[in-house]
Amino acid sequence: MPRSDNYEAIVSRGEYGVLGPEDDCWPPMAGMVPSASDQFDWEGDLPLKFPQRDLVIYEMHVRGFTNHESSETKYPGTYLGVVEKLDHLKELGVNCIELMPCHEFNELEYYSYNSVLGDYKFNFWGYSTVNFFSPMGRYSSAGLSNCGLGAINEFKYLVKEAHKRGIEVIMDVVFNHTAEGNENGPILSFRGIDNSVFYTLAPKGEFYNYSGCGNTFNCNNPIVRQFIVDCLRYWVTEMHVDGFRFDLASILTRSSSSWNAVNVYGNSIDGDVITTGTPLTSPPLIDMISNDPILRGVKLIAEAWDCGGLYQVGMFPHWGIWSEWNGKVSLETFLVTIFISGCSHLGI
C-alpha cells in the first residue's frame, strides 16, 4: 500500500487517568486538521490475508497488556509497549492479535470514588466510543504530541511491525452504541447533529437500549450504515488493520427507527409491517459490508447476540464470509473474567 496522509485524531487530555483542568472529566475535545507533510511511511506494508481457519488469535487490552512493571517494557500501557512484546507473541505461536477497543473513549466517563476499594472508578475496557475514526490517544506514549498525530503514527507502527512478524491485527469495534448514553446523557456528537437519525428512538423520544449501555445506534438507517462502512474502510485502507470483531453484532441486524422499505431498499415490500428493532433476515448494513469491495476481503467476526435478548449464534446473516464468536462460555472463563474486571481499578 502507498504512503498515506488521511487521518483523524481527537485532542483532549494527554495522560491516561489524569483529570482535565479544574478536575474536569469531560474537558473540551477538538479534531486535528491533517497537513500534507504529515505522512507515514508504510515501507510497502501489505495485508497478510491468512485463512481464518489458520488463525491463532490473542485477545489483548492494549493498556493492560504491558502496563504492569512485570512486562519490563520501555513504554508500558501503550501501542509501543505492545510492539516490544510482538516477538514474544510470535514465539508463542500467535499469528493474530485482537485489540480490545482502541477507538477514542473517555476512561474517566464514570469517574467517581469507590468507597469499597478506597480508590476511583475508571472505564477500563473502553466499550464506550467517543470518536470512531480516532485511535485512543492515551494509549500512546506520544500523548498530545503534534496535536494527536503521534498517537496515529504509533498505532500505524504497531500494525506495520506486527505484519513484519507475520501477525495480523484485528480490532474489536463497538457500533452498537456510543458514549452519549440515553436521552439524559451528554451531547458529544451524534445527539447534536441529528438525534433521531443516529439513535433508535421510541415514539416519545426515549432511547431503545438493546445494548444495555443506554442507547442503540440506528445501524440500518441509510445515513448511519454509510457512516459505519466509511469508518471500517478507513481503518483498513489508512490504518492497515486486517479485520474486525463486532461487539454485540446482533444490533447491526435490527431494523432502524421509522423503518421504511422504500427508504432502505428503494421499493416497497408486500406485507412489510416491521417495527423498530425487529431482527432482519437481510439487514442492509450487513449486506453493504459483505459486498463492499474492500471489506469483504478482511476478517469479519460477529458477537452474535445483544442485551435485548437477540441470540443469533449459528444463525447470524453471514453472506458466506462472516465468522461468529461461540456463545458458550465455561464457568472457568466466566470466573476469570469477573476476577479481571474486579482488578481493573489497578490499571493492569
From TrEMBL:
Domain Glycosyl hydrolase family 13 catalytic: residue ranges: 59-347
UniProt xrefs under InterPro entries: GH, GH13_cat_dom
Top-rank taxon: Eukaryota
Gene3D superfamilies referenced in this protein's UniProt entry, alphabetically: Glycosidases
PANTHER family named in the record: GLYCOGEN DEBRANCHING ENZYME
The protein's name in its UniProt record: Glycosyl hydrolase family 13 catalytic domain-containing protein
Organism: Solanum stoloniferum
Taxonomic lineage of the native organism: Eukaryota, Viridiplantae, Streptophyta, Embryophyta, Tracheophyta
